[in-house]
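Action item from last week, closing it out:
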Amino acid sequence: MNRVHPKSLFGSKWTKVEVEGREKHFMVIDVEYDENQKVVCCLIQAVINHRMFELDWRELKDSSRWLMGWK
């Protein structure tokens, strides 16, 4: 399990374990917070082709799907 703190999400780098379409490395480019400063969602972008995906930030905690940093 990856230890992810919501305040440190923006700008963080991630590697997807199961690569699809050569999209392996990602970067968090936006994080949305609600009025209670809880993370609502985050926007990640593939480094290779700049495609963006909306993602529930808790999915990044799953080390069987995501690795911290670029590997």
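Closing note: The chain has a mean pLDDT of 95.
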